[in-house]
Amino acid sequence: MKARIAVLGGDGIGPEVTDSAVRVLAAIAQRQGHEFQFVEALIGGAAIDASGSPLPSRTIDACRSSDAVLLGAVGGPKWSDPGARVRPEQGLLELRRVLGVFANLRPVRTLPEMLDASPLRPEVIRDVDIVVVRELTGGIYFGRKSRTAHEAEDVCSYTAQEIERVTRVAGRLAMDRHRHIVSVDKANVLDTSRLWRTVVERVLTQEFPEVKFEHMLVDAAAMHLLRRPTSFDVLLTENMFGDILTDEASMLVGSLGLLPSASLGSDRVGLYEPIHGSAPDIAGRGIANPIGTILSAAMLLRHSLGLEDEAASVEAAVAAALRGGIRTADIATPGGAVAGSQAATDAIIAALSA
Question: Taking burial as the number of CB atoms within 10 A of a residue's CB, which of 64, 98, 132, 213 is the most buried?
Answer without folding.
Answer: 132
